Amino acid sequence: MKTIYHKIRRSILTLLCMAAVIAACMPKCAVPVKAAKVSSGEKKKIQKLIDDNVIHYIEGACNYPAKLDKLTFNDKIKTDIAFHNVAYDRTVFSQYSSDAVWMEKYKPYGGVFRYTDSVKAAVKKKGRSLFGKSFQISFAVGDGFSTSSNYPLSHDKKYVLMNFTDWGDWYVSHKYKKIDKKNQTYTAQIKISSYWGGAEDEVTDYLFRVDLKKENQAFIVTNIVVQN
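^ that's the sequence the OP posted. Answer follows.
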């Protein structure tokens, strides 16, 4: 009887050990990350940041769809967006010229800005407020439309060229589809609808994703993606 008891005990221990080994070898099931709730105050701040600083630039890319394929969130796009935001500030716009000499030499679409220290400072300040303290100025370089940049530096790096698309009779609207949060990343999905005047029945829709993170009580943009 004692022998039978020991055999049963050994069998149970063996089964328990086998179960422990199997459990250890089994792949861990990934626990899905649930979207955290974004407060109404956070949504307002995010929408204001995008509406005031990013959406006009993105809508301009929709106006000239060939540029959408080139819209990769890198240092040159960040610099482009930063300059777009300060182009009409008094300090920067005072450096603007559409003199025929510069138009002929650099072949910009709409004129040039002298690339002075005050212009650099304005771009740097705006870039860091939008994209964080790591922002560094990195203009694309090339005359005319030799680059996909809206604001490239001239080949001699003396001027910023105005190549932002002419809106003309082009119309656009945007709508926030949703704003959510996973881990520490806030994501805004935006639908942009555009059409040419007189062609209201030929609306083109584009879907964008803007990622942001919170720094203190403010937000900075960490990514912009064309989703379609």
